[in-house]
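input
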Amino acid sequence: MSLLSSFDSPITAVLIGASGGIGQAVLAQLLDEPRVSRVYAFARRIPEPLKQQTERNPDRLSLHPIDLSQEGSIIACAEQLKDVTPNLVLITSGLLHSEESLPEKSWRNLESDYFQQQMQINALAPALLAKHLIPLLPKDQRAVFAALSARVGSIGDNRLGGWYSYRASKAALNMLLRCTAIEAKRRWPKLVVAGLHPGTVDTPLSEPFQARVPEGKLFTPEFSARSLLQVIDGLTPMDSGNVFAWDGQLIQP
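output
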């Protein structure tokens, strides 16, 4: 059964963050779907597995570099797509930790540079991508613009505190997606703008925090990717502006 049966065929997809664990798994799922005619994949770096994917799919996959910390690079991304009408834009990029910084356990651990990095990559970059890529989407047929969010970005669901920068950046992303959905509806009535929570996935992003994950709740990238595409397939314009978990559950603001 097609993963993206709700879309008109052929499907043209734009994938931002294709080099990450979830991004690579999503790319593989898209290339396995016969109704997807072309994937334009963007990543900060192009690792060998992505180069091999291009060699295996020269007529269906285009790889391009992108620097999400620079709006000029995002504009260049849009320029490369100016003759394309994508049905699907999916952003799988994100920042949780670095070699120097881990999520804060207390306000005492707040650092300006780390906070700004989180906001830049997790919130501002998707908003700028919406600014430059939504104008390329069709107005007369179904289209989806989605970005990976996180359940910890829910203000109402926050019971534990901590992780100040990451929580704040994902909460900001959710608000930016809601604003984008409201504005876009006026000209793109069939567009769905949504945030997606992939669950805890066995990737380098979650590796330092996997010890506390309950049994059965650490997902493979392949499972998460397929689940997210199934959720995307079931979304309607009435869902636009909301955030959904990997199992389709609506996440409260």
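quick obs: The mean pLDDT is 94.
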